[in-house]
Design brief:
single chain, 503 residues, alpha/beta, eight-stranded parallel β-barrel, 8 helices, 25 strands, 27% strand, hydrolase, Glycoside hydrolase family 30 protein, GH, glucosylceramidase activity
Amino acid sequence: MYSPTLLLGQLAVIAGATAAAQPSPVTIRAGGPDVSIAIDNEIRYQAIDGFGFCEAFQRAHALINLPAPYRDEVIDLLFNPDTGAGFSILRIGLGSSPNSTLDHMNSPQPSAHSPFVWDHNDSGQLWVARQALRYGVRTFYADAWSAPGYMKTNGRDDQGGWLCGVRGEGVASTINGTTSACGGASWVEAYAEYLVRYVQSYLSEGIPIKFVGFLNEPNAIKGYATMQSDGYQAADEAFALSLALRASNLSVGISCCEGQGWSYARQLLSEMQDAGAEDTLSLITAHAYKGAPAAPDSPLNTTLPVWITENSPIMQRLGMSQTWYNNGSENEGLYWAVTIHNALTAGNVSAYIYWIGSEPYQVGGNFYVTDPPYQIGGNFWATSHFSRFIRPGATRIGTTTASTASKNDSSSVMVSAYENKDGSVVVQVINNCDQSVTAAVTAPNWVHTPTAWEACEVDTRMTDNTHNLTLADAIYLPADGNLDTVFPPRSLTTLFVKCSGEN
């Protein structure tokens, strides 16, 4: 039986462990500011599409095989917007492997001469999608790691290889001195039809796929499903997929290209633009694993929304950790809070998706199958601060942070703010100092309609080494609309401001 680690790698399920009990509430309110924080909703940045996770490569079975009531508890932690993380995006891996050996995602059409047969399971991901739909999730993003092997130059879905027929990788029996498995055929259009059939299969189950992608880390050559491509070759498939979706009357956006890091995503985007294919896309996607830089450092040159569709400490072979902060390791919660903050503020990303939401307990790439219940990773709490309160359709708004006392460095206080569609405002404050910081928070424009400041309630949540998304005492804005708040050492605090008259 699988027993999952809960999100972010990292609901982890370990014998004798339980979800951390909620500590007693902590009040974080005081005077004498060290840092001033100004919020301005007249300065508008990117729209936010949401936050999410993936359960590809049969990781979904870790959830499915959990006995009740643990399974229900974990699903609630992942999707409930009131008591859990409220994740609003589910990334789905589209299978390409000839079978389900190990953790492979089997293809509905495993050979060139076999029919497309939908198994109403999709490596367990359909079950997860149904749970997400039940909680109100409406953004389902399906992405293929590779085309099936018979469509590729190397004749297999792993170990790289190119899609037969894309530019530079023709259909001849020998390509660049290497024997090709293409057999004289181009599979560009057939791969597009294959992806359309996948989208239609999910739609037949009541799951509307919003975006579909056809590549994943196209510079990687691995022992799992991988397919190589540059941006020009990706353009060939994007044109074909766009035509196939339109011919099938499917209102599904195309995404590209899941580069391993930000710098590679920038290169792929530039090549697609040069090939004239950007207009076929609805979404630009990137990972944050490798490159210079690997993580977002500045916005990409596009008007399309940009998502980080995969990241985790897997490249460092770090296992799940319940630690919020110890030494700044990549599997600690505070590290992920900073990582998400930087992507939103430096890269202007519109969504952030963690690699796996729940899986069997993992250390150094090895799975340890144990009995329930489950453990919760520190990075789950970090991501939950963003996903629960910043809802789809929100807009990032302006913030300014300045130090007012020499003992604190304002650069260690990281602030971002967001306005939801209902007018509520979310302020995320990371105190990356070893000491508490008192901040004066001012927001002269954070409500659009005239109202008394006293009618605005601040729901304050905080996570540090002893608290997990803990609710502090209710705070009502003073008459001048300014708020003095203490942010504990090495903490993430969410100020959720909702005023009378807002829905």
